[in-house]
Amino acid sequence: MKQTNKDKIIKKKPSQQKVKAVSKPFIYKPLVVFSILFIVSLIIYSGGFSNKIVFLDDDMMFDNLKLLYQKPFSIIHESYTRDAMIGIGGDLYRPVQTFALIFLYGLGDGNMLYFHLMQLLLHVVGCYLIYFLLVTLNFDKNKALVLTLIYTVHPLFAPLVCFVPAIGDQLLLVLGIASFLSFIYFTRTKKTVFLVLHILLFLLALLTKETALVFPAVFIFFALFIENSKPYKVLLLPLIFWIALPLLFIIVRQHFILPELVAPHNVLNFKNISTNFSYNTPSFFEFIAKFFIPYKLSFLAPFSSVRTLMGLVFIVVFIVLAVLKKLDYKWFFFSLLWYSVFILPPMLYRNPVFDYGEHRGFLPLVSFLFLVAAVKQTNKYFGFLYIIVPVLAFISFNRKADFKDPMAFYTGIIDNDPVPIAYLNRGAYNQKQKKDLKSVLDDYNNAIALKKDYATALYNRAILKSEDLKDIEGAFSDLKAAIESKPNYADAYYHRGYLELTALKDTKKALADMDSAIVLNPNYVLAYNNRGILKMSYLNDTIGAFNDFDKSVSLQSQYNPTAFFYRGLISYNNKDLAKACGDWNIAQQQGHKQAYDLYTSYCSK
């Protein structure tokens, strides 16, 4: 048999063959890549494992988790009926995220170390899946590794490891990319097992965060224009699930959320969607600017015309590369689609006290790894990107200190780019700690100066004036302004009713405001309890009072000693000692001293 040229080359250069077969692939072996990502992440973030809550949703989240975990055997039920951030109701429905948070809370008995460890692990897994996705899409492994390292150490994503509520964004990326990978394998192998895995992971992503609703757009574009698959062969079955599962999710979601708690400007209608999208347009460009030039990072960021322009410039650069055929058109449009669909959901909502949170860019910005990897140049010139890795890692290493505690967190934001919520939450934290009430008042005043109709700041200042500064008239003025600014503000109605009862002894107005609070929030446990006390102690309406306490217990039985105590007291007055003792027993187990005294006196004999 005649020897081929290929055979001759192999014989002449065995050392080169050895390098390709043994030395080079070692760096890219899955376990090696995962270990590199894990060690690098551990070096950067392990010093932040002792970080405390920063008083931005996480304090409320831990309060709710403490209640939700009172029933450890009903963790699944609690996960799909409640939100970890709000408790009962709310405008978010994220069962997988809630399950993960309740599970971690129970595993570590509330120790934040368990949350930080899980966030670190999810970060590493997510970044490894990004590497695996780049390789699966046939990008060069050297490019895939250096780009993944940049993503792993990028300071823009430090909040994902340091800010506990951002765990939902990590879960979404892990489940979403895993679902995408299984779909790619289905399109290439046509094996049912990959389709089943894809649908299961897509469902879990959907139950983690509403953003997953747009994943099918990416799947369809990939199948039609990247893989050039025949639609009827790979899209028909998945398409059925991509339509059915989101519809089912929306139906179930509507059953468990409370629309009345949604801010009026975030109710999904054409006017709000168009207004919010228009307002949030700069964020489309600012995430890109912060990714390529991570300067002046701020977790709660205001818009900047400079960053908006910089982001636009980077988009133009990639357009030019595509026109000059230095970048494949199919990857340009795929990346643009990926970024657009995943950045779109946050743009439909507007927070009136800051413009965007940096953690929202984690999944959308994966698209720019595709873009950079698709630029046509040799690996010899691409290797310079490794120099960027330690620089970004150093910035991230220092940035984790921003999440050390509330004072570091909010002071850093205020020193960088002041936003109203930073002043508000720093003041609220100090008020809760009873520290320097003058500075608390100053912070609330600064928040209101930046946003005159800031209902939450007005409400908090009213609490400060009524409870600490003894300025009842000022408190009523602030509560009135808060309600005018936010007509569905249940807390403001409740507290005004409370002041009308305790300070003015005006039971009629107090009852009217507490009624309004409950109409606006039918699950308002504290309002039911205090309206029950008002009816029982001032209006002699024991039936109405009993019904309020009974409703309160039905909403929150895990820890509600006040409702159990008073319901027991009404039962005792109605000569039903058995029911009274049952309620007092629960109340005293939950720490109610008067319930303990009554239970000891009347029930323990």
Shape: globular
Average pLDDT for all residues: 90
Strand arrangement in the largest pleated sheet: 1-2
Query: What fraction, in percent, of the residue positions are helical?
Result: over 70%
Structural class: mainly alpha
Number of helical segments? Answer: 32
Rg over alpha carbons: 28 Å
Main sheet properties: 2 strands, antiparallel
- The tally of beta strands, per DSSP, is 4
From the N-terminal CA to the C-terminal CA, the straight-line distance is 104 Å
Fraction in beta strands: under 5%
Poorly predicted residue ranges: 1-23
What features would you describe in this structure?
- This protein has 605 residues and is an all-alpha fold.
- Among the domains are: 113 residues, no CATH class; 105 residues, Tetratricopeptide repeat domain (Serine Threonine Protein Phosphatase 5, Tetratricopeptide repeat, Alpha Horseshoe), CATH 1.25.40.10; 81 residues, Serine Threonine Protein Phosphatase 5, Tetratricopeptide repeat (Alpha Horseshoe), CATH 1.25.40.10.
- It has 32 helices and 4 strands.
- The strands form 2 sheets. It has a two-stranded antiparallel sheet with strand order 1-2.
- Strand 1 and strand 2 form a beta hairpin.
- Helix 11 runs parallel beside helix 14 and helix 24 packs antiparallel against helix 25.
State the main characteristics:
Serine Threonine Protein Phosphatase 5, Tetratricopeptide repeat, two-stranded antiparallel ribbon, mainly alpha, 4 strands, 1% strand, 605 residues, disordered N terminus, 71% helix
